[in-house]
Amino acid sequence: MYAFNYHKPATVAEAATLAGKHADGKLLAGGMTLLPTMKQRLASPSDIIDLSKLGDLRGIEVKDGVVTIKALTRHVTVANSAEVKKAIPALAELAGMIGDPAVRNRGTIGGSVANNDPAADYPAACLALGATIHTNKRSIPADDFFVGLFETALGEGEIITSISFPVPDKANYQKFRNPASRYAIVGVFVAKKGADVSVAVTGAGDSGVFRQKDFEAALKSNFSAAALDGKSQSAAGLNSDIHADAEYRAHLIGVMAKRAVAAAK
Amino acid sequence: MPTVSMTVNGKPVTGEVDSRTLLVQFLRETLRMTGTHVGCDTSQCGCCVVHIDGDAVKSCTTLALSCEGAKVTTIEGLANGDQLHPMQEAFRENHGLQCGFCTPGMIMTAVELVGRKGHNLDEKTIREELEGNLCRCTGYHNIVKAIAAGAQAMGAKA
Question: N or C: which end of chain A has fewer CB within 10 A?
Fold first, then answer.
C-alpha cells in the first residue's frame, strides 16, 4: 500500500469539504473493496477520508411503500432487517449473499453502490427496483447513476447519504457466483410493480450493470418463466475472463432470469 | 506519526502507527500479539479474523486508525488463564485442526457465529457461515464437528 494522509471527519459536510479539497483522495466506508485494491497498489489515493464516524448515515426506514437505507448501513444489517425482509425480501436475500460473514459485518451499501464494481450485487437491485440514490447534493435515479465500469454519476465532493427503494409487488435475485471471490459471475434481479417489469443484470456486462429490455418486454405481457422461452441474450458486450466466457455468461443470464421470475415473491 | 488507542482483550493500548498500518499489523507487530495470523492477506482466508465491537471482521482489511476507541478481541483474549474457552476446547477435543494456521480465525468466526445464531447449530449452517474461512489441511469435517460441539458447550457453561 502506498502512503496516504488519513482524515476522519465527524460530519457529512466536513467529509464533502475534504473530498472536494483532495481531488486524488478516496472516501473509505467499509473498505472491503478499497483496502484490498490499495494493498495491491491498483489504487493509490493521496488521502483517505474515513466515514466511519458518521453515525447519522446508518439505519433503515420503511415508509409509504419505500425502503430507505442509509449509506453506511452494513450488509449484515440489511440481510437481518425484519423490515427489509417483510417489504422487499429479495433485497435482504441479496445482502446476505454478498461476500462472507466477516465481509458483511463491515461492507456498506453506499460503498458498494459508489464503487459500482461490475460484479457487485447491489447495483442490480438499484436498477431493477428503480431506486433513487440520494447524495449530499441531489437525488439521482438509478438509471442515470451507473455510468460504466467502476464509474458513476457522482461528482467531486459528492457523497451518497442514502438509497431509497420503492417496494415492488414481486422481486427476486438469482446469483451464479464465483465460489472463490463470491462475486457474481452473473446475477439477475427481476422486479414487478404494477404493469412494469425490470430485469437488471450484473457480473456480465463489459460496462457494468445493465437492464435486459427484451426480457422486460416479454415479461410485461406475461410474468412467467415460460415467457422467456426462446428469448436469448447476445454475447456481444459481455465479459470474457478466466471464470466464464461471454457465451457462457449470455446463457447464464437467460437461466438466472427464468429462475428469478419463477422465485419472485 | 499518528497514534491510535483501542481496547484489546480488555486492556487499553496505544501505539504509534503509519496511516496505512492494518489492524492485523498493529496487533502482531506493535503489540506483539501473534495469535492472529495473516494467511492470504487478500480477505479471502479468514486466518486474521478478530472481533471489533463484537463483530467478526478480517483484520487484514481494516486500518488500525479506523479502530480508534474500538473494543477488539483476539484469540489471546478467549481463554481464562490456563482454562481454554469452550470453543478452543472443542477444537482440541474434536481434532479440529492439523497445522493450526487457520485455527485462530476459525475459532473467532465460530464464537461470533454462536453469538448470532445460538447454541444449536446444524452442519449446513456451520458450513455456510465458514465461507470466509479457509483450511488447507482438514477438509473441514472436524472443524464443523468442533464448532457444533463448542456451541453446545458455550450454552452449557452460560
Answer: C
Answer yes or no: is A237 within a domain.
yes
- B129/A32 touch (CB, cutoff 8 Å), yes or no: no
Whether residue A100 and residue B66 make contact (CB cut-off 8 A), yes or no, is no
Q: Would you call A101 and B68 a contact, using CB atoms and an 8 Å cutoff?
A: no
CA A215/CA A219 separation, integer angstroms: 6
**Residue B34 near chain A (CB below 8 Å):** no
CATH class, domain B3-77, is: alpha beta
pLDDT tens for A37-93 read: 999 999 999 999 999 999 889 999 999 999 999 999 999 999 999 999 999 999 999
Helix segments in chain A, DSSP class H:
12-21, 34-39, 75-80, 82-87, 89-96, 101-104, 109-115, 122-129, 142-145, 213-221, 246-263
Residue type, B149: A
Chain B positions touching A100 (Cβ under 8 A) are 46, 131-133
Kindly state whether residue A214 falls inside one of the protein's structural domains: yes
3-class state of residue A30 by DSSP = coil
Domain regions of chain B by residue span: 3-77, 86-157
- B15–chain A nearest CA distance, Å: 16
ipTM of the complex: 0.94
Q: 1.10.150.120, 3.40.50.1470, 1.10.3470.10, 4.10.640.10: which CATH number matches B86-157?
A: 1.10.150.120
Nearest to A140 by CA among A162, A109, A173: A162
Q: Which domain holds residue A200?
A: 168-265
